[in-house]
């Protein structure tokens, strides 16, 4: 595939400008910045550029975010989805970090190439703190055994970074040592220490079956997925079980995936809000290029401005609804989609 390169200095300068602007994004300038990222990636991302040509979309005709074509997420399984920033990040060059999905038996794992992993980590902190306050104030406890047991997890990179930023000496990962985790949680509950327990669904259920604790002052956050360890259940059932076991009013949730560098967070009832660098749209189920109306079930398209090294415009396989205020729900997945190891549960 022939690539049209502009001078390296100009490319690097443009990337630097965008990378400086993205952490400052707000609701007022999000769309304008998204269009700038689109025009940049339409030129410098070879796969995305080829995709635009295939569907006969000229970048110059794209004037609103609703005109932007979204790259099917399945390409992350079969292609190298990269934005070329010059000699530092060529198609043949060595990437700094490769995030990969866990995959399931018989499926192909997705690969996400990231040149600047520190930019990703900084973005995760900005996103979390927009909803929960300073990470440094928390005792951060990770119950993510399935992710810890493999390499390349972006979720582990995020939580590990939170642990490193935490000033609490008990912050850390707990693989299968539920007794030690219970002791730390009791101490944090007693001292009213702000605490985040973030865990994959099956591990939280395993823990809940062993320990019934008063964790009413603890933020318990599930990341979804049974990963073949337990029978799939709805999020509502999961939350009810955890609420009863831990005496909390709500269970929080995190929405993320290997192909994304931004997250969505729910403080209860399965209503997610995107972090500042993320916007969620919905497309019609039968027409991938038609925008779905608010509060109508569609398939989610995600603008992820942090995805400068990859593609910021991803057409997921998640069914959902988007509200007028930008919040969204996850209702399941397209029937024809592969079952993903990190998939949020079907409602």
SSE map:
Blueprint lengths: L7 H14 L8 H15 L1 H9 L16 E2 L2 H4 L18 E4 L10 E4 L2 H16 L6 E5 L1 H4 L5 H12 L6 E2 L4 H14 L3 E5 L1 H10 L8 E4 L12 H12 L5 E4 L8 E3 L5 E3 L3 E6 L14 E7 L8 E10 L5 E6 L14
Question: What is the structure about, briefly put?
Answer:
With 347 residues, this protein is an alpha/beta fold.
What does this entry look like structurally?
The protein has helices at about 10-20, 30-45, 45-55, 75-80, 115-130, 145-150, 155-165, 180-190, 200-210, 235-245; strands spanning about 70, 95-100, 110-115, 140-145, 170-175, 195-200, 220, 250-255, 265, 270-275, 280-285, 300-305, 315-320, 330-335. By secondary structure, the chain is α/β, with parallel strands linked by helices. The protein has a domain at about 115-255. Helix 9 links the parallel strand 6 and strand 7 (about 220).
């Amino acid at each position: 595939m022939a690539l049209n390169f502009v001078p390296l200095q100009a490319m690097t300068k443009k990337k630097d400008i965008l990378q400086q602007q993205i952490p400052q994004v707000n609701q007022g300038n999000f769309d304008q910045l998204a269009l700038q990222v689109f025009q940049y990636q339409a030129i410098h991302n070879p796969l995305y550029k080829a995709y635009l040509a295939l569907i006969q979309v000229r970048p110059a005709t794209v004037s609103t975010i609703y005109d932007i074509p979204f790259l099917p997420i399945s390409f992350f399984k079969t292609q190298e989805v990269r934005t070329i920033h010059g000699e530092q990040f060529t198609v043949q060059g060595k990437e700094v970090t490769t995030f990969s999905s866990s995959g399931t038996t018989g499926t192909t794992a997705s690969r996400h190439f990231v040149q600047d992993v520190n930019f990703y980590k900084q973005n995760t902190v900005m996103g979390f703190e927009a909803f929960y306050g300073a990470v440094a104030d928390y005792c951060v406890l990770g119950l993510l055994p399935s992710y810890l047991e493999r390499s390349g997890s972006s979720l582990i990179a995020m939580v590990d970074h939170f642990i490193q930023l935490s000033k609490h000496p008990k912050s850390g990962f707990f693989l299968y040592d539920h007794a030690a985790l219970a002791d730390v949680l009791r101490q944090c509950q007693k001292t009213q220490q702000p605490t985040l327990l973030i865990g994959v669904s099956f591990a939280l259920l395993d823990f809940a079956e062993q320990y019934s604790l008063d964790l009413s002052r603890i933020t318990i956050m599930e990341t979804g997925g049974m990963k073949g360890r337990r029978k799939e259940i709805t999020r509502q059932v999961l939350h009810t079980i955890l609420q009863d076991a831990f005496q909390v009013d709500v269970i929080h949730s995190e929405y993320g995936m290997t192909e994304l560098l931004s997250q969505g967070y729910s403080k209860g009832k399965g209503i997610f809000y995107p972090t500042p660098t993320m916007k969620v749209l919905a497309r019609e189920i039968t027409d991938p290029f038609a925008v779905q109306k608010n509060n109508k079930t569609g398939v989610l398209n995600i603008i992820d401005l942090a995805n400068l090294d990859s593609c910021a415009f991803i057409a997921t396989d998640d069914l959902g609804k988007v509200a007028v205020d930008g919040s969204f729900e996850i209702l399941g997945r397209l029937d024809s989609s592969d079952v993903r190891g990190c998939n949020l549960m079907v409602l």
